[in-house]
Amino acid sequence: MSRISVVAAVIGLVGFLGSCRQDMHDQPRYRPLSASRFFGDGRSARDFPEGTVARGQLRLDTAFYEGRVGTQEISSFPIPITAAVLDRGQDRYNIYCSPCHAYTGEGNGMIVQRGFTAPPSLHEARLKSATPGYIYDVITNGFGAMYSYASRLPPADRWAVVAYVRALQLSRGATLADVPEDRRPELGPRPPAPAAQPQPATPPSPVERRAR
Ligand code: HEC
Question: Using one digit for the tens of pLDDT, what is the confidence trace for 139-160?
Answer without folding.
Answer: 999 999 999 999 999 999 999 9
